Structures are given as C-alpha cells and as structure tokens.
Amino acid sequence: MTHSRTGQSAQTGHLKEFTAGARDIISMMVGSAPFGVIFGTLVASGPLHLWHGQLMSLVVFAGSAQFIALGLIAGHASFAVIWATTLVVNLRHVLYSATLAPHVAHLPARWRWALGALLTDEVFAVAWEHYRNREPGTVGPHYFFGAGLAMYMNWQLWTVAGLLFGAAFPGLQSLGLDFAMVATFIAIVVPQLVALRYIAAAATAGALAFFWQAWPYKLGLLGAVFVGVAVGVLLSTSGLGLRRARQSAEGSR
Predict the structure, then answer these.
(1) Is the model's pLDDT at 233 over the cut of 80?
(2) Residue 73's CB: how many other CB atoms inside 10 A?
(3) Which of 41, 85, 156, 190 could form a disulfide with 162 if both were Cys (CB 3.0 to 4.6 A apart)?
(4) Inter-residue contact 43 to 70 (CB < 8 Å)
C-alpha cells in the first residue's frame, strides 16, 4: 500500500511539473502563432505541396530554418546548399544544449533524445529559467518536456492554419505579423540581462549581427554569436579572477 501511494504521489508530481512547463510557455506560444501561420501561407503559395510544409514542421520543428529552407527551395538551390545553410542557422542550439547539459545529463538516453528534439529558442528560455536556480541532477525531465511538447503542438496547429486558410489572405505575410517573433525573442533575452557580462555579450552580438547581416548563408549571425559568447566568457573569467584576488587579499589580512 505504501509503495502504491508513493508511486501515485510521484506521478502526481510529474504531472504538476509537466503542466507547469506547458503553462509557463504559453506567452511564447502566442508570439510564435503568427510565425507559424505565415510559414503555412508561404508554403501554400509556393512550389511545395501542403503536406510537404506540414511534414517539415513535424520533422524539422525549427521556424527560422524552415523559412530559410523554403526560400532556398523556391530559388532551386541544391540540397547541399539547403543543408549547409540550415545547419549554420541552427548551430546556436549547440550553445543551448551545452548550457542545459549539466541539468539533463543524469537522465536516461530516451529522455535526452526526446528533450533534444523539442529544444527551440523559446523552450530553452523557459527550461533555463526553471533550471538555473537548481542544482544539476536534482530536477526531472517533466517540466522541460511539458514546455517542449506544448510548443511543438502549437507550431503544428498554426502551420495547419496557414496551410488551410493562408490562401484566403494573400497579403498576410506583408502585414508585419512576423514582428511577433521579434518581440518573443526580446522577451527571451531581456530577462537574462541581469549582469554586466550578459549585457555586454548581448550588445556585442546584436551590433555585429546588424553589421554582418549581408554575409552569405547567415554566417554573420553565427559569427556575431561566437564573438558575443567570447566577450561574455572573457568578462566572466576576469570577474572570477578579481573575486579570487579579493578573497586572497582579505584572507591574508
């Protein structure tokens, strides 16, 4: 009886964590909705069949990469160019994975693969906010999974809406609805700017991304990210060195 109650209590706890993750990402889901509709609309008016667009959302699940791939396909780019370009654009997920890795390393492989497949910019922001004040290895996968699955289903829903109804609104992509995604990214970044090193890294990456936006295959964006990360690491290292020097000086008194 005790074992049964313990199992039920654990299941209830897992469900609460799953629900909390799905709840906390709702604001991000609202921001991505117009993005999904516009993607579906572009597919409906482009060279692909409708099912191609939905399959891309189901399998790729990466908004920016899907838009870029769609444009390259419409321009009759080769498979190698499409693959390489989308790979470069999505390399930022390596940074996301490295940040979250200590918090999921204790999970079974099936969980790590599932969470990795659901990782997006929005899911990372929500999951990191949940993990950052907790010791690595002490949190299960259910919160992360709830946020990721909710965003995944949301993206499928709005892709379908764009595929089915986008043709009825031919000027939809010119209405500026894609700014909703920009606003979402602002909402992701701004709460993280809690220290000078974060602000410096974000400002550096943002400025360089603007000046390097003409680089081919979005390489300017990737370069800006790496330089921003380097600035953040340098400032973190120097700050750590200063703190250690102060502690050493205080200890010698």
Answers:
(1) no
(2) 17
(3) 41
(4) yes
Torsion (CA) 137, 143, 149, 151 in degrees, nearest 10: -110
Structure tokens at 219: 């390489």
pLDDT digits over 33-42, tens only?
Answer: 888 888 888 8
| 9 burial level (CB within 10 Å; 0-12, 13-18, 19+) | exposed
Residue pair 22/147 in contact (Cβ under 8 Å)? The answer is yes
Distance CA 231, CA 198 (A): 9
Name 94's Cβ contacts closer than 8 Å, sequence gap at least 6: none
What angle is formed at CA 89 by the lines to CA 88 and CA 90, rounded to 5 degrees? 90
Mean pLDDT, rounded, for 53-57: 94
| Alpha-helical regions (H) of the chain | 2-24, 26-44, 50-59, 63-74, 79-89, 92-104, 109-117, 121-131, 142-165, 179-189, 196-211, 219-251
Confidence (pLDDT) at 218: 65
Question: What is the C-alpha separation between 45 and 36, in angstroms, rounded?
Answer: 14
Question: Residues 6 or more apart from 142 whose CB is under 8 A from it?
Answer: 14, 15, 17, 18, 21
